[in-house]
Amino acid sequence: MFVFSSALAVFQKTTEEFSHQFLSVSSKTIKVYVHLVFLRIGEIDTLNEKYQAQASIESRWSVELENLLPNLSSDEQQRLIATISRTDNKIYICEHRNIKGSFWEKLELYHFPSDVQELSISVGSMLYDDKVLLIVDPYYLSGINREVFIDQQEWSLFEHVDTKQRYLKEFLFQGGVEEYNDEDDYGNTDNNNNNNNKDRNRSIFTVTCYAARQSNYFYWNGYCMIFLITSVSFCIFTIPPNLSANRLQISCTLLLTSITFRWTVNRSLPTISYSTSMDKYAIMCLFILVILSIWHAIIGGLIFRYTSDFHKTSITCFINFDRYVLYVSLIIYILIHGMLLIWLFCVPLKHRRQLKQKDIQYRQLLSKKCQLSKKKLENNSDYVSISIQI
């Protein structure tokens, strides 16, 4: 999470009288318009639950011209641009930040490998929401550059991004005690505000992009392999039921193979406290193998118990009963996979279809913005830059 104090950086360099008004009068809440663009999305590390990204953040807020004093540093001069808006005839200070690094993200793997991950960056302020309020920029859309996405072999990015404004309860920044001490210097009004810190929140602005996992690899090398291993277990019914030792030998081999394969697949996932959809499918297939193995032991024991000669072939009733178990097991096995396909289409894949529909809406909104921007260019720019003498 990248945190900055946009308003405080400039207004602390203005007059003390204006700073007092800014920090004490809650009716003059500064609205900071923020928009963020993902310039590049790097590797998405599922095992360590983090991703690499580079983003550009622009925030702007309106100020009064008489409160701008020519005492900004050279660094602030390079990253702060004062503009006059033709729309509302206000002075806006724009702050541009480029950030690059690794971001921790809690990955939701319930629907793995058909999961869609939310990659988000949150922007906050050192000041409370009664001083600074971070809101969505109504004139500039947040977006994402998909052309330089590195992990295209494993993930696919959606075009749209979602923005969310939320509030967090009281928490301390590094140097938060200094913030409180500074406020104490402004008088009794700020002392009363400090007593109510626990009741105030901080404004947080979050921009989220979406990445869908390329799941074909896991379908063929995960689901398909488990399906084939479990399906082979039904071929054991071709062995005569009186040869239970041979049946159990093959069943136990398939069971151990399925367990080994499951642990191999889990190496690519982080240690989580819940089961993914592939885990549930693999566990279900393990139970099927165990149940069939138990049945092979039961039918062998029945034949040995109620047949005087273990090699006697006149065991028609047991053979018919064994065939009935085979047919019922096959029907249940097919029904389970039918329900699994329906669930896959209605839950994980439905979420992807919804995101694709949002992509279409985003493109339509973007085309409207482009048309409006062309008209504005014909009527000159919305903003006129003014120089600040240092």
Topology (elements, then pairings):
Layout: E1 2-3, H1 6-11, H2 16-24, E2 30-45, E3 50-63, H3 74-79, E4 80-85, E5 91-104, E6 116-124, E7 132-136, E8 143-144, E9 155-169, H4 176-184, H5 188-195, E10 201-213, H6 216-232, H7 244-266, H8 277-306, H9 316-346, H10 348-378, E11 383-385
Helix pairs in contact: 6-7, 6-8, 7-8, 9-10
What does this structure look like?
With 390 residues, this protein is α/β, with parallel strands linked by helices. The protein has 2 domains: 2-214, Acetylcholine Binding Protein, Chain: A, CATH 2.70.170.10; 216-346, Neurotransmitter-gated ion-channel transmembrane domain (Methane Monooxygenase Hydroxylase, Chain G, domain 1), CATH 1.20.58. It has 10 helices and 11 strands. The strands form 2 sheets. Strands 2, 3, 4, 5, 7, 8 and 11 form a 7-stranded mixed β-sheet that branches. The protein has a 4-stranded mixed β-sheet with strand order 1-6-10-9. Helix 6 runs parallel beside helix 8, helix 7 packs antiparallel against helix 8 and helix 9 (316-346) runs parallel beside helix 10. The protein is elongated and about 105 Å long. It starts with a strand and ends in a 5-residue tail after the last strand.
Based on the model shown, name its key terms:
2 domains, disordered C terminus, 4-stranded mixed β-sheet, Acetylcholine Binding Protein, Chain: A, 10 helices, Methane Monooxygenase Hydroxylase, Chain G, domain 1, alpha/beta
CATH superfamily of the largest domain: Neurotransmitter-gated ion-channel ligand-binding domain
* Highest-level CATH class of the largest domain: Mainly Beta
The residue fraction in helices comes out at 40-55%
Give the number of helices: 10
Compute the CA-based radius of gyration: 32 Å
Quote the CATH topology of the largest domain: Acetylcholine Binding Protein, Chain: A
Order of helices and strands: EHHEEHEEEEEEHHEHHHHHE
At CATH level 2, the architecture of the largest domain is Distorted Sandwich
The helix/strand class is: alpha/beta
**How many domains make up the 3D coordinates?**
2
**Average pLDDT number:** 79
Using the alpha-carbon principal axes, give the shape. Answer: elongated
Distance between the termini: 32 Å
